[in-house]
Amino acid sequence: MTKVTLFEVGPRDGLQNEAHPLGPDDRVSLIKRLAHAGMPYVEAGSFVSPKWVPQMADTDKVLAQLDAEAYRYPVLTPNMKGFEAARAAGADHVAVFGAASETFSQKNINCNITESLRRFAPVMEEARKHNIRIRGYVSCVLGCPYEGDVAVATVVEVAEWLLEHGAHEISLGDTIGVGTPACARAMVKQVAQSVPRDRLALHFHDTYGQALANILACLEEDIRIIDVAVAGLGGCPYAAGASGNVASEDVLYMLEGMGFETGIDLDQIVATGNWVSHLLNRQNNSKVGRARS
Ligand code: HMG
Ligand code: MG
């Protein structure tokens, strides 16, 4: 059976957008449930300014409660300050997050694209030195909440830069979920001319209900890493109206039906999605989760 790797971002991309932040203990419970269900990677938090994203404060306390398992619990690190804090907390997998839109970059990390890459360069250099794995995100690959259409050439440029500077994997983010299958596939095809397909991940939000269709189109392009969020949690604090990532449960259900292997127990993910939705007092945004609750 062909293998697909799911990369769970609910405890980071999901919880960063919740009105009522969860404390480190609840975040750890969520992460452990997801890992126990077989999620190979569970993004554990962010080392960003707590003034900007209070929901991700105390990510060091989260990491302190997780067993060291090689590269399993990545964290976001936008600059050297974040990287040093992540390293002190024992992180062995970090992510820098850039964008293909100047305005989104400015709103999200307070600098333009050129400056963002200047900040990422030493993070990536230090990470390589210490055998810390680096993921690179490119946001707004299919549209920007401020600028509208985004040039694929810019997506390619940022992705190439990340690859050249040592990113192990590059996650292509449809941050506001506006893409449709044909443009998602065309974008991936173009990026894949310079980034190997086995190092590309899909990070699709489901704002317009297109995420599964977009994933299917990109599976046909041989992309085999997919970012997901349990219960469809999430959004982005700097992209008004963006809804959650595609739900882990819905992607798993589709992949199982297509005969792909993930090593993940769908029933346990469904139970976790219902548990966290209850904890957050919100509707479960996974259709599979709702059907099976
Ligand atoms: P800045 O204001 O440019 O940074 O913020 P600065 O270096 O000028 O420092 C300003 C203050 O922030 C100082 O504190 C620094 O110490 C502090 P003050 O003196 O005012 O008390 N600071 C930090 N504190 C903690 N950790 C740090 C850090 N760096 C500086 N690492 C910064 C730059 C990136 C920090 C800020 O803009 C920020 O935190 N932004 C939040 C970014 C974020 O987390 N966005 C959401 C995640 S991205 C996303 O969701 C998209 C993605 O899912 C993919 C997709 O969907 O497309 C990945
Ligand atoms: Mg996201």
Q: What does this protein structure show overall?
A:
By secondary structure, the protein is an alpha/beta fold. Helices cover 42% and strands 13% of the residues. It is built from twelve helices and nine strands. The chain has a nine-stranded parallel β-sheet with strand order 2-1-9-8-7-6-5-4-3. Helix 2 (24-36) runs antiparallel to helix 11 (266-280), helix 8 (181-191) packs across helix 9 (211-219) and helix 10 (248-258) runs antiparallel to helix 11. The longest helix is centred in the middle third of the chain and has 17 residues, at 113-129. Magnesium ion binds next to loops. 3-hydroxy-3-methylglutaryl-coenzyme A (HMG) is lined by residues 13, 16, 46-49, 52-53, 78-79, 81-82, 97, 108-111, 137, 139, 173, 175, 203, 236-238.
What's the quick description here?
Helices cover 42% and strands 13% of the residues. The protein contains twelve helices and nine strands.
Bound molecules: 3-hydroxy-3-methylglutaryl-coenzyme A, magnesium ion
Structural class: alpha/beta
Report how far the terminal alpha carbons are from each other. 29 Å
Poorly predicted residue ranges = none
Number of domains: 1
Element pattern in H and E: EHHEEHEHEHHEHEHEHEHHH
Strand order of the largest sheet: 2-1-9-8-7-6-5-4-3
